[in-house]
Amino acid sequence: MALHKLMVDDFYDDTYKLIAIHCRLEDYRLAYLLNQKLELRLQRKKEDIDMEYLKSSYSIFEWNNASQYVTWNLVSNVCKKEEDSLYSIGLFQTNEKVMKTFNLVPEYKKVDYFIKISEEIQNVNDKLILNKLQSIPQIITSYTVNPSELKSKDHLIF
Question: How is the chain split into domains, by residue range?
Fold first, then answer.
């Protein structure tokens, strides 16, 4: 009897482009600037991306361009959360607030936002998008990332 092995990774073959953005703006301000420069219609989704049972959450903006079969996502890579830390000094215990930082894609800790462009037809020119992004003065830098090289590419499935 022949043994057939089914690989789960074979089913998810989503083609998308990923652009990393270094920018200190708030997410809604960056979405507004992207809508102006790239002629998009990004809107905040009702629910954020929650990771590890509400340990961290990341804002996400989306626009589905049905005429060109392209879905645009702007997702935050950084979540800062204040947590209580309890430690003891001798006989006394002290409760202190500590700011913890979580990343959606831990391989790129310095990246503030990602633009994910999911397309059925390969018609989006990423070089043109990068040039338009560089023309926004509030963006420090932007570059393309190869999603197949990411260890945490499953975090970008939404």
Answer: 15-156
